[in-house]
Amino acid sequence: MSRAPNVKTRAVRIIGGGMAGLFLGLRLRQAGVEATVVESGRYPRHRVCGEFMAGAGETFMQRSGLRFDSPAFPRHRATRWYAGGHEVLRCMLPRPALGVSRHVLDHLLADAFRAAGGTLLEGVRERGNGSDDPPGTVRATGRRACPSPWIGLKAHYTGLTAEGLAVHLGRRAYVGVAPVEGGRVNVCGLFRKRPGLSAQREKALPAYLRASGLAELADRLDGAVLDPASLCGVAAFRFSPSFAGRGSGLCLGDRIGVIPPFTGDGMSLALESAESALPHLVAYARGESPWPETVARVRAAHATLFKGRFRWARRLHPFLLHPAGAFAVRLAAVSGFLPFSLLYRRTHAPLPPCTSKA
Ligand SMILES: Cc1cc2nc3c(=O)[nH]c(=O)nc-3n(C[C@H](O)[C@H](O)[C@H](O)COP(=O)(O)OP(=O)(O)OC[C@H]3O[C@@H](n4cnc5c(N)ncnc54)[C@H](O)[C@@H]3O)c2cc1C
User: Fold this and answer.
1) Phi first, then psi: what are they for 264, rounded to 5°?
2) Ligand 1 atom closest to the CA of 154, numbered from 1
3) Which one of 50, 184, 198, 261 is least enclosed by Cβ atoms within 10 Å?
4) What is the DSSP letter of 48?
């Protein structure tokens, strides 16, 4: 990755080195802007994520020079949905989804950012909520902690047979099974919290699967090899975005709001939020735009790009998680009335027209 000389006058400080923060840092460096990313964790690390990148995410990556052409990274062209142990839907994806673990992806981004001349501070937690951030500060700190009835759990397995990307609908739960690099299969689910269940790390995912009516999948996991280091969980979700961001400065990615995970669009949206902020931040760095104006322009760009997608994803989400809704989805799917392509278009960045559907 080539280093651009610092030709701009003001620096940008990014808090949070996940997808959005690292990608913005890299793109700023490529535009010659001095950029620092402050990250509370260290790389590489596993994260709760379905680890399939649908939508336009790969296009943004390519723009930055990061490519995933190696056959080591699976490309999912179709998705299969299961309910009650039966396949109810098989669809071609309008655009292939990239299978890549966050362990590898965040590390690659961090390396690229450093190689481009960015300053990356690992193991440093910034305080505050953004209300008194100095000009030039971007918050890319991920999900806002808030009480939530949901829990997300994920783990990598080897020796698990998986035919491409699969989504399993359970009782108040859905689970993505997605092959990633190195022959690993990522299993990641969103579950309604069940306080009585095993709190033991290694037992939590199979216990949640069984309690959600997904015993068959749990049995398959029992026959595969778990990577204990990959186990992780999160319990704070807010699916309603905040584009106004009152008092919270300039936000990117999940800090704006978490798009329901069934879309597989969260990573793409994080990258897109950074890419759409880029010209405004470059103008700020050049001294052409004052900070309050820069923040207002970025928020307006985000609202235009994402409002509709969030609205649709939030409408569909309860259908997948409520037993009656899941039944309706299943019925629509088996009778051929589920408008998959249309729903995909409503919940992802614009695409060329969809041509095929299984
Ligand atoms: C169950 C589940 C499944 C999902 N599945 C998918 C999927 O299949 N495909 C997909 O595209 N998306 C998926 N997502 C969404 C996706 O993971 C997120 O949208 C994406 O990670 C957002 O990136 P981000 O950079 O905004 O936040 P993050 O990746 O969360 O990064 C935020 C970073 O900020 C750091 N940080 C936080 N606070 C501070 C602080 N005070 N100081 C310094 N650093 C700080 C954190 O350590 C973290 O590294 C899923 C999400 C969930 C919950």
Assistant:
1) 65, 25
2) 1
3) 198
4) S
Domain-located, residue 217? no
Q: Whose CA is nearest to atom 41 of ligand 1?
A: 126
Helix and strand numbers (H, E) in the chain are 9, 13
Q: Once rounded to an integer, what is the mean pLDDT over residues 163-187?
A: 94
DSSP state of 113: H
| Domain harbouring 109, CATH code | 3.50.50.60
Ligand 1 site-directed mutation target among 27, 40, 49, most atoms within 8 Å of CB: 49
Res 353: pLDDT: 45
Overall number of domains in the chain:
1
- The strand order across the sheet containing 150-158 reads 52-53, 86-99, 75-83, 165-170, 173-179, 185-192, 150-158, 225-234
* 358, pLDDT greater than 70: no
**Can you tell me the distance from the alpha carbon of 188 to that of 233, in angstroms, rounded to the nearest whole number?**
9
Instruction: Please report whether residue 357 resides in a domain.
Output: no
User: HSE of 161 in the Cβ direction (CA atoms, 13 Å)?
Assistant: 4
The dihedral over CA atoms of 268, 117, 44, 121, expressed in degrees to the nearest 10, equals -110
Q: How much distance in Å is there from the Cα of 138 to the middle of ligand 1? A: 15
Nearest atom within ligand 1 for CA of residue 264: 9
- Domain with 127, as residue range(s), is 12-68+102-144+238-318
User: Worst-scoring range by mean pLDDT, 18-22, 213-217, 312-316, 325-329?
Assistant: 325-329
Q: Which of 37, 35, 33 is nearest to 21 (CA)?
A: 37
| Structure confidence at residue 248 as a pLDDT band (50, 70, 90) | low
Residue 51 has pLDDT above 70, yes or no: yes
Residue 202 covered by a domain: no
| CB-CB contact of 270 with 23 (8 Å) | yes
The model's pTM is 0.93
**Residue to mutate, 40, 139, 190, ligand 1, most ligand atoms under 8 Å from C-beta:** 40
Question: Ligand 1: does its nearest atom lie under 6 Å from the Cβ of 260?
Answer: no
Average pLDDT over residues 82-91: 87
